[in-house]
Amino acid sequence: MAILTAKEVTKRFGGLVAVNKYDFEIGAEEIVSIIGPNGAGKTTFFNCLTGFYQANEGDMLFLGQRLNGRTPDQITRMGIARTYQNIRVFPAMTAIENILVGEDPRLKTSWIEAVIKTKRYTKEEEEAVAEANRLLEYVGLTGMGDQLSHNLPYGAQRRLELARALASQPTLLLLDEPTAGMNPHESAEMMHFIKKLRDDLGITILLIEHDMRVVMGISERISVLDFGSKICEGTPAEIQCNPNVIEAYLGRGAATGLSETPEKTVA
Amino acid sequence: MSETNNFDYRIPLQNGLIAGVVALSVSVIGMVTLLAQRYLIAGWLTLGQVILFMAPAAMSYLAAGKAPQNNRGIALIYGFLTGLISALPLVALILLNEVIDLRQFLPNVSPALIEILTFGRGTVAGSLFLIIVTSVLGLVAAGLYLLPDRIRRPIFSGLIWTFFFGMFSEILSDRLRTFFGTDFAKLIIESKALRPVVAVTIFIVTASLSVLWSRRGDKVKGRMAKMDTKSQNRMRYGLIIFGITLMLILPLLLGTYLSEVMNMILIFALMGFGLNIVVGFAGLLDLGYVAFFAIGAYTMGVLTSTGDLGVAGMSFWLAIPICVAVSMLGGLLLGMPVLRMRGDYLAIVTLGFGEIIRILVLSDLLKPYIGGAQGLLKINKPVIVGIPLIKPDQFYYVALAGCLIAAFISYRLSQARLGRQWMAIREDEDVAEAMGIRLVNTKLLAFAIGAAFAGLAGAIFASKLTSIFPHSFNLLISINVLCMIIVGGMGSLPGVILGALALVGLPELLREFAEFRLLMYGIVLIVMMLAKPEGLWPSAIRKRELHVHDNEDYEDYPEAMAPRAETRDPGLEGPSHL
Amino acid sequence: MRQRLQDLDWIGLYLWVLRAAIIILVVWGTIATIIDNPYSPRQWIDLIIFGIAQGSMYALIAIGYTLVYGVLFMINFAHGEFFMSGIMTATVFVATPLAATGFMNRQPLLSLLLIAVVAMVVSMSIAVLTERAAYRPLRKAPRLVPLITAIGASFFWQYYFRGLFGSQVIPFPVPDVMKGTASILGVEILKTQLTVIVVTIIMLIGLNLFIMRTRTGKSIRAVAEDKDTAALMGIDVDRAITITFATGASMAGIAGLLYALVFTQVHFFMGFFPGLKAFTAAVLGGIGSIPGAAVGGLFLGLIESVGPSLFLQGLGIPAPHQLKDVIAFVMLVLVLIFRPQGILGERLTEKKA
Question: Which of A149, B174, B514, C248 gives C67 a disulfide partner, CB atoms 3.0 to 4.6 angstroms apart?
Answer without folding.
Answer: C248
